[in-house]
Design brief:
mainly alpha; two-stranded antiparallel ribbon; 5 helices
């Protein structure tokens, strides 16, 4: 194991802070996606009995959308930039986001991502 430079120490702190914020944001987004939808009896696959309100987050039918909500932290190859990705890999969640249920960005902004990230960095000094 070699000598760790101050830059590497700062990078590690920033990556850790981004991962903590990502985990917290993902948990908050999963709460938003936990509102159950009334299910049409006997439908296979399960379907919501009523359409969701435009502008509101998609409601939980099977739980797949909520379960697939995740984050990923990626440092750039030169180490100068750290990117936190928060999203979902289920096809229909993207359809909702591009349609009448733009819930992801709105809820990320509501949780004040930048403020939380900066608070984590301050607390790690």
């Amino acid at each position: 194991m070699g000598i760790v430079t101050p830059f590497e120490q700062i990078q590690k702190i920033a990556i850790t802070a981004a991962a903590r914020v990502g985990a917290e944001m993902t948990a908050e987004l999963k709460k938003v996606l936990s509102v159950p939808a009334p299910i049409t009896p006997g439908s296979n696959p399960p379907r919501a009995a009523t359409k969701a309100t435009p502008g509101a987050p998609p409601r939980k039918v099977s739980g797949r959308g909520r379960a697939a909500t995740a984050y990923f932290v990626e440092p750039s190859s030169d180490g100068n930039t750290i990117t936190l990705y928060i999203g979902n890999s289920v096809f229909y969640m993207g359809v909702h986001e591009r349609g009448n249920h733009k819930w992801l960005e709105k809820n990320i902004n509501a949780t004040e991502l930048a403020a939380k990230f900066n608070a984590y960095l301050e607390g790690m000094r």
